[in-house]
Fold:
Amino acid sequence: MTIEKKEVEQRMKHFETVCRDEGIKLTHQRIEIFREVAHTGDHPDADQIFRRVRDRMPTVSLDTVYRTLWLLNDLGLVVTLGSSRERTRFDANLSSHHHFVCGQCGFTHDFYSNDLDNIRLPDSVGTLGEIEATHVELRGVCRECLEKGR
Amino acid sequence: MTIEKKEVEQRMKHFETVCRDEGIKLTHQRIEIFREVAHTGDHPDADQIFRRVRDRMPTVSLDTVYRTLWLLNDLGLVVTLGSSRERTRFDANLSSHHHFVCGQCGFTHDFYSNDLDNIRLPDSVGTLGEIEATHVELRGVCRECLEKGR
DNA sequence: TTTAATGCAAAAGATTTGCAACATG
DNA sequence: CATGTTGCAAATCTTTTGCATTAAA
Structure:
């Protein structure tokens, strides 16, 4: 799943702006690593990102990829997903979206829904703290696995 | 957070029934490990469970704890939570509930809501696959962290 | 008694860190 | 030029595995 060129450019611009504002140096490595995450919608993990970036930039190291990804996460430029047992995966899609997770193959598909973005929460949650984001996660079996299973 | 005695007993009963039905041996270790998860509501990780069980059963080993927890998970007796960067945590609360996760301290509070259990999903998700469970995750900052921050 | 489960110790992964060399602003 | 960043290699931390011993049914 590839992100539209226009969207990728927008994400790159935003990334550069945030780095400048924060006094973070724009190194080749960081640019290529962010570009890699920004232009895919398939939630790669650190190792996958490492391999893909290495194709274009053979000297890059895995630990730089890790350091950069967590930096991007701290800067709010990427988000992590992936539950406990699997590796951490990264996503540069910052617009409000929800997830359908296949319990069989682990694949996570994004989906959008205005209704879900605006769910009404029970008053009781106000006691727990301040809510910043609401995220719906559907667990199930994806079409591909359903077909394989039969 | 401690679970009511009655509820714990119910969980233990269910655990024993499932094990018998599946031909899984009811060893001391398994009983104590499940009891430990069943009687707490604070989502402990494998190591915490190990330490707590070891207090009562000094010979238990960490790998047995892991093996048992994943077995319980496969049997549908516990559920895992905890996102990528943190250790896997375990929960024996099987009734439909949702989570409030504090982005600061990582603490996950359970909460209940009939409305959320029955959210209406957009038709489009039908194309993704078969949905088994809907789970709402709220991200924010918990009361404790809010107070510390100020 | 038979088969599955445990404990131990060692292995395997994934991720992180210290430090000298290097590139960015 | 000063400082932050990288690459390397080694360390760390969590989780898993092989195997001989032990315990449940």
